[in-house]
Amino acid sequence: MYKVLIVDDEQGIRDLVSKYCSLEGYTYGVAGDGLEAIEKVRNEDYDIVCMDVMMPELDGFSAVREIRKFSNIPIIMLSARTETYDKIHGFEIGADDYIGKPFSPKELMLRINAVMSRANMQKSVSEVFDNGRLRVDFTARIVSVGGNAVDLSPKEYELLFFMVKNRGIALSREKLLNEVWGYDFYGDDRTLDTHIKLLRKSLGDCAEYIVTLRGMGYRFDG
Amino acid sequence: MYKVLIVDDEQGIRDLVSKYCSLEGYTYGVAGDGLEAIEKVRNEDYDIVCMDVMMPELDGFSAVREIRKFSNIPIIMLSARTETYDKIHGFEIGADDYIGKPFSPKELMLRINAVMSRANMQKSVSEVFDNGRLRVDFTARIVSVGGNAVDLSPKEYELLFFMVKNRGIALSREKLLNEVWGYDFYGDDRTLDTHIKLLRKSLGDCAEYIVTLRGMGYRFDG
DNA sequence: GGTTTTTTGAACTCACCGTGAATTTTTTAA
DNA sequence: TTAAAAAATTCACGGTGAGTTCAAAAAACC
C-alpha cells in the first residue's frame, strides 16, 4: 500500500486528508510547511505527496521545485486559488496533478489512485511466487498446486498473499489479524485459526508450508 | 524532429505546451481556434496536432472532422470536460489520443511520443486480439464471436477493450470504474455489475472468459 | 419524439465469514 | 509419569454482504 505525505499548514486539512487515507488503507505522514516536506521526502520513504500551495516558510511551488531536484515522486497540488495561473504554474514546475480547494476528499482519493496507477504503469511486472509445487500469481490472482489452479475465497487469497509476501518471517496472530483483517478488527481468536485451516485444506499437499508457531502465530516456509 | 500544431484559445495553455515542445526539441506552430487550425494543417507541414475541444469559432470536434476529410495527421484531443462522451466521441471522429484537463505537460509529451511512434509504425498493423473463438479488433472496433460480428454499446466496447488489453490481470472494481468510466465517476456500484452482465450476454459463448473474483473484481481469461 | 444506452434502486441468492463449543495437541506443573 | 492447563484445531450453524438479475427511470442520441 501507498504511503502518502500530506503537506498543509492547516491542521483541519491534514486531519481530513489523513483520515481518508486511513480509510483507503494508505499510511501517511504529515508536514506543516514546505521545508518540512522536503526534509521528509528526502529522508523517509513516501510514494506520493499531496501539497498545499499556500504555506508559511516555504510555499508549495518552491517546495516542488526543490523536490524535483532530487526526486520524481508523484505530487498532487492543492490550491484555494482557482486561477489558471496556479494550475499551469504547478504543472510547469513538475506537479503530476492539480486539484482546487475546496475539494471533496473522495475526489482527492480518486486522483491519488489515478496518479499512482499512471505511475505504476511503467513497472507492470507480473509478481509471481513459484517453488515448483506451489505457484502464487499476485497480479492474476491465481493460485495453483502442482499445476492445478485452486479456488480460494477472498479471505484465503488475502491471507495467503500476505503470508507468501512475508515468507520466512514469523507472523504473530496479532500481526496477521491487523494486516489481513484490518486494524479495527476485534474479532475472535478462532477466526484466524479457522481461516488457516480452510487455507491449509485448499492448499492440499502444500498445507505443510504453513507452519504453526505455538504461542506466537504462523510462518510460511516456501 | 516533429512539428507540432498547438490549438487552444487560451494563451496560457499555448505558451505552456509550446515551451515543453521546445524542451523536447520539437518545433511548433499555434492556432487560436478551429478554423485557423484547419487552415494551417492544410497549408503548412505539421506532423501532429494537439487540439483543445472547447474553442470559439469552430470547436475541436468539428475541426477534427473537417481535417479528416483531407488528412490523416495524428491528432491528440485536450478537453476540460471529463465526461466519457468527449473521449469516445473524440476517438469516433478520428482523434488518435485523448487527454483530460488538467493534464501535466510531461504526460502530454509522453503521449505525443507514443502517438508518433505508433504512427511511424506500419499503419496497417491493426491491433487485434484473436484466440479462435473471440476476435477483438481494437482499431476497427469490431468484435466477433465464432466468426459472427456482434454489436456492442459504447460502454461495452470500452469495458471489453480495457479488459482484453489487461487480460490475465486481476482488475478491481475500483480500477475498472476509474479506467473505463473515468476517475470522476461517483456512480453506483451496480453500474459495473450491470455492464458486466450486458457484456457477458453480448459475448454469448465467450462470456466465460470474464471471470468473477469475489470481493475483488473481474479478470479476462482469454 | 422515438430509440438506444446508461444508470439506479430493489429483490434475491448463495458463498463466505465469524462465532462458540467440542476435540485434539502441546506445554507446564506436580 | 501423570494430571492439569493452555493453545491450536476442527466442526457446524446463522447472519451478512457481494454479486447477479430485473425493471424502470434518466440520459444521450438520431
Helices, strands, pairings?
2 copies of one chain form a homodimer.
Chain A: E1 3-7, H1 11-24, E2 27-31, H2 34-43, E3 48-52, H3 60-67, E4 75-79, H4 84-92, E5 97-100, H5 105-121, E6 128-130, E7 134-137, E8 142-145, E9 148-150, H6 154-165, E10 171-172, H7 173-181, H8 189-203, E11 210-213, E12 217-220
Parallel strand pairs in A: 1-2, 1-3, 3-4, 4-5
Antiparallel strand pairs in A: 6-7, 7-8, 8-9, 10-12, 11-12
Helix pairs in contact in A: 1-5, 2-3, 6-7, 6-8
Chain B binds a DNA duplex (30 and 30 nucleotides) through residues 85, 153-156, 187-191, 193-198, 212, 214-215.
Describe this structure in words.
The structure is a homodimer of 222-residue chains. Chain A has two domains: 123 residues, Rossmann fold (3-Layer(aba) Sandwich); 93 residues, Winged helix-like DNA-binding domain superfamily/Winged helix DNA-binding domain (Arc Repressor Mutant, subunit A), CATH 1.10.10. The mean pLDDT of chain A is 81. In chain A, the strands form three sheets. The first copy, chain A, has a five-stranded parallel beta sheet, with helices on both faces. A four-stranded antiparallel beta sheet of chain A has the order 6-7-8-9, covered by helices on one side. The first copy, chain A, has 222 residues and is an alpha/beta fold. In chain A, 42% of the residues lie in helices and 22% in strands. Chain A is elongated and about 60 Å long. In chain A, a hairpin with a 3-residue loop joins β6 and β7. Chain A is built from eight helices and twelve strands. In chain A, α1 packs across α5, α2 runs parallel beside α3 and α6 crosses α7. The longest helix of chain A is centred in the middle third of the chain and has 17 residues. Chains A and B meet through α4, α5 and α6 of A and α1, α5 and α7 of B. Chain B binds a DNA duplex (30 and 30 nucleotides) through α6 and α8.
